[in-house]
Design brief:
- With 300 residues, the protein is mainly alpha-helical.
- The protein has 11 helices and 4 strands; from the N terminus they run H-E-E-E-E-H-H-H-H-H-H-H-H-H-H.
- The strands form 2 sheets. It has a two-stranded antiparallel sheet.
- Strand 1 (19-21) and strand 2 (24-26) form a beta hairpin.
- The two termini are 27 Å apart.
- The model is unreliable at 143-167 (pLDDT under 50).
């Protein structure tokens, strides 16, 4: 059984499907979510809590959040949608501002007040300059450039050859290790969510409950067989070859397929629980698909 940590709880909150009730959206902890509205989109977004996940984890588990948009802009690969999400209230403020400005400018124009007309012209230009500023993507990238670090005097210390062991495995394969660890965390979160939903939908003792839980147990065992096998290849491989990479990618691919199947089952259970229709046909079809997936990965 996995140990719950603030990080795993936060990932669970971000990846669990939302609960919709009375046209309002709630996250897995029952917190009411605010509606995020831009010129082209209206949606409910679960924002990550501060000081729990790092930037890479936010991009992975909450890619549509405002925090993720800020990170993309900071790193220099954000787009117009990211700017609009970060400044989501700006279009409505500008719209109200120009409506008021037009109402003021009409009597000023008819009175031929030169000073007032110049003032209105300045007020028209200022928001445009601000828009240019926030949509100038170069300004986001310059903050990521690190200043050169001044070299400090090196203090020679005796080399202790016995204190640090050399890392095993090939260095070029280490990049897969982080991806596998992230998949392990994601699977733990998804597994916990789907178990809670199965227990809610099919209260034990029921044969259906036992059958679902048995399949999830098989997925758990199979997932970690693939994970351990991939990590063993990474740590024990003597060289980086296409065959070694193919083996690792096959293991990672199987892990992702299992996670996707768990996600499909989770979403179907959420819909099934929320629906007044008591039919479990779609859920059972997904269970059959999951069993077929288990058999196919075992055969591989």
């Amino acid at each position: 059984m996995s140990i719950e940590t603030p990080k795993s709880n936060e990932i669970k909150r971000l990846t669990t499907p939302l609960t919709i009730k009375d046209f309002k959206a709630y996250d897995s902890q029952g917190k009411l979510l605010n509606c995020s509205e831009t010129l082209s989109d209206v949606r409910f977004i679960v924002e990550p809590k501060k000081n729990i996940l790092n930037d890479d984890e936010i991009l992975q588990y909450a890619p549509e959040s405002k925090s993720a948009s800020e990170i993309r802009l900071k790193r220099g690969f954000g787009g117009i949608q990211d700017v609009l999400l970060v400044h989501e209230s700006l279009p409505w403020i500008l719209g109200l501002f120009y409506v008021v400005l037009i109402c003021i400018s009409i009597p000023v124009t008819f009175s031929k007040n030169i000073l007032g007309m110049y003032l209105i012209l300045v007020l028209i230009i200022l928001p445009l300059l601000y828009l240019y500023y926030i949509f100038n993507f170069k300004k986001y990238t310059k903050h990521t450039v690190k200043e050169p670090v001044k070299e400090s005097k090196k203090v020679e210390t005796p080399v202790q050859t016995t204190s640090v062991e050399e890392s095993t495995g090939v260095e070029s394969l280490k990049k897969y290790e982080k991806e596998i660890n992230n998949l392990n965390i994601l699977f733990n979160v998804k597994e916990e969510v789907v178990r809670e939903l199965i227990e809610k939908r099919f209260e034990p003792p029921q044969l259906t409950y036992d059958k679902f839980m048995s399949s999830i147990d098989s997925c758990h065992k199979l997932f970690y067989v693939q994970s351990d096998a991939a990590l063993n290849i990474i740590n024990l491989a003597a060289e980086d070859t296409p065959r070694v990479r193919d083996e690792i990618n096959n293991k990672i691919g199987s892990m992702k397929r299992i996670i996707n199947q768990i996600e499909d089952l989770t979403n179907e259970l959420v819909i099934n629980i929320s629906s007044s229709n008591e039919s479990t046909g779609e859920v059972k079809n997904l269970l059959d698909d999951m069993e077929n997936l288990i058999d196919s990965v075992k055969d591989y």
